[in-house]
Amino acid sequence: YQRRVRGRQFLEAREWEGVAPLAWYREPGSLPMTLFGLMTKAALRATEYHGVMTREWGMNSTLAGCILFFLPLIGLIVAFIVGVCSVHFALGKAKPAELVGMQRAKPRQPSGGASGGASGGASASGGASSSGGVSGGEEEKKDR
Length: 144
Hints:
Layout: H1 2-12, H2 31-56, H3 61-91, H4 97-100, H5 136-143
Helix pairs in contact: 2-3
């Protein structure tokens, strides 16, 4: 009763206006506080399950603790793998470089220069160029 009276006096005297605001991470509805509340609930529920497993089922306390630790961990790993696989299958395979448009194909290597194209890319006609000193790479460009 005393606390309620102090609270009423605090509100009636408008003393709450002089209280400094909380930092964003200490507000009750913020993400860190919500996660903290969920972890506290999970810990309390795990304590209840541990009691059921040891008292009612007669399980060893260490075994019950290991089960309560590893079972959610394995569940999270499986959920992560399923999520990654579902995103992969939903988005499909990666497209080849020439279809993406933002990636460039590898640049063609210039021919060997003095050797007349012997070390450069071979032409479609079997290696030697049919047009004198034109290298294989230049001949491919003309064919397009």
